[in-house]
Amino acid sequence: MEQRHPHGHVSSEIYEDHVLVITVDRQEKRNGFTPKMIDELAHALTTLEETAELRVGVLCFAGDHTTAGLDMPMFFGPDADPNALSPKDLVDPLGLFRRLSKPLITAVQGITFTIGIELALAGDIIIASDDTRFSQLEPQRGLMAIGGATLRFTSRGGWGNAMYHLLRADEFDAHEAFRVGIAQEVVPQGTQVQRSLEIALEIAANAPLAVQLTKANARLALEEGEDAAIARFGDVRRALNASSDLQEGVQSFIERRPARFTGT
């Protein structure tokens, strides 16, 4: 019988050549996050970022639940590492420091509390099983969500919806998450990973540079405003014009066939 590490494990595997599937597994503890898991997740996301052949990531969670949150004594106890949530020089799973430039889809199910919401919001698309239970419950423990919820819940769901849930620290279901823009799809229980993979393959079939520049420009508009994003259009156009994928896109249109992009 395989010996399981008590602090959990994060594994990765390549799916259909261009998709990195990252699985968080400490299911016997409802995937309660430990510093080890944060570090391994950061390494997996950095592999996605730095490997040219990988175009999209899918983050999923073993067992019945996304996560019950942080294993609090490991992060807030007397011996806790104050930097455990921000691994140095790696892609930050919470997207607060070094950020992932490639698309990330997160599949969630069951209990999805605190850091589970913040990890998902640090990505781009959230696919929720219809049994998902969300809660940003930090205020019930005398804490504030410092993993990005106050930023991204507000930008995705709007001020009123964000305050409605963040200040009450209540629990809400997948359909409410969809209503406020947190989840992009609600799917039958057990199909959230497969649906995420389907979407990942759709994205991976597009030109990688065009996809990454689209994400970067949208983020720029969100953070610095429309004028900043518009000002970057010239640089974007020049970068795409210099790519062989643009030529392939044009040629595939002329020949009426699917494009075969190489990411160059």
Description:
With 264 residues, this protein is of the alpha/beta class. The protein folds into two domains: 9-204, Alpha-Beta Complex (2-enoyl-CoA Hydratase, Chain A, domain 1); 208-255, Orthogonal Bundle (Lyase 2-enoyl-coa Hydratase, Chain  A, domain 2), CATH 1.10.12. Helix content is 41%, strand content 16%. The strands form two sheets. The protein has a six-stranded mixed β-sheet, sandwiched between helices. Helix 4 packs across helix 5. The model has no long low-confidence stretch (mean pLDDT 95).
Q: What is CATH's topology name of the largest domain?
A: 2-enoyl-CoA Hydratase, Chain A, domain 1
The proportion of residues forming helix, as a percent range, comes to: 40-55%
Rg over CA atoms = 19 Å
Biggest sheet: strand arrangement: 1-2-3-4-6-9
Structural class: alpha/beta
Largest sheet: 6 strands, mixed
Share of residues in strands: 15-25%
Number of domains: 2
Distance between the termini: 45 Å
CATH architecture classification of the largest domain = Alpha-Beta Complex
Oligomer: single chain
CATH superfamily annotation of the largest domain:
2-enoyl-CoA Hydratase, Chain A, domain 1
Low-confidence stretches: none
User: What is the typical, i.e. mean, pLDDT?
Assistant: 95
Concise summary:
This protein is of the alpha/beta class and 264 residues long. Helix content is 41%, strand content 16%. The model has no long low-confidence stretch (mean pLDDT 95).
